[in-house]
Structures are given as C-alpha cells and as structure tokens.
Amino acid sequence: LLLLLAGCSSNPLGISDSDWEMMTPEQQHEARLEQARIDEAERIRRAAAAEARRQEELRLEKELAERRANARFGDIVQCTITDAQGRFGSDWRSANPGAFELVRGQTADIEITRASRSSQRARGSASFDGLKVEVCSGTLRCASLVGTEQQFRRGVRQQIDVERFVRGTLTCAFPRGF
Hints:
It is a single chain. By secondary structure, this protein is an alpha+beta fold. The chain is built from 4 helices and 9 strands. Strands 1, 2, 3, 8 and 9 form a 5-stranded antiparallel beta sheet that branches. The radius of gyration is 26 Å and the shape is elongated. The N and C termini lie far apart (66 Å).
C-alpha cells in the first residue's frame, strides 16, 4: 500500500514530488490555486450534468403521466409474473408473484422479491409496444410475449425464462374499463 501511495502524486496538477520541491512557494501557491479552479470547474460540470439528467427524468415522467391520462384502449397493458423463480445471487430461488403496468412505448424497471427473504430483489426491465411485452434482464437478455389486440383483450399467458433474472408465467391483458 505504501508503494502504491508513494507512486501517486499528492501535489496539485499532478506535479511530481521532485518538481514540486524545486518550485518556489509562490509557484506552489499558484499551482494550488489553479488546481482549485480546475476542481471547481469539474464540480460545476458534474452538478450541471446531474441537473440535466434530473430535468430529463422529470420531462419523461410528465410525458408518461400525460400518455397514461389520455390512454385509449390498447395503450395500457397490465401484467403478472406468477409461479416465479428469480435469480438471487448465483442461485435460482422461489420468488413472490409480481405485477406491473406499462403504457405503450414505455420501458420500466421491474423487480421481483425472493419468497423466503423479501429483502432480496432481482431487477430487470419491461417494455410494451402495443403487440409485444418484453421482460429483460440487466444483460439485455429478453423474453417476449406477443399477442394480437383480441388476445390481449382476453389475456395472454406464456412461460418465460429470462437469463439471470426470472422464470415463470407471464400473463398480460388490457385493463377493463375502456
């Protein structure tokens, strides 16, 4: 550890120890000031990037809420995953049933919990394009449930096996009331 730390310069601007020793106190002070300016500019850049991400998330949430509020028949699908097993760590274990709702064009994060230990969760995503529901793992391995409007109206069911995420019965249907 000491050798690793000795190899890393702790001086401003990455100046080597030997060069730092040769600098006047005024030059060292200027180097510290310049490093502080660089650090502040980087902090401001990170804060601006975080704010831009937050604004984009808010825009997408608002757009999704508007699509949900103005949805027509076939724009929303409700799904359940039952008789499930989830990948928790390196093992497949029994999972609690799960449910999610998607708006056409939406990709949403979903999770399942371990049946015997609900603090353990496996995470993936799901999307709906109007004719197909896809359930995907973090590695983008997906299982698809495809159906016509008539099939989704009655409810369509299929066994899924999504690598490193979930196995079970995926059932999806358009909600009643439209």
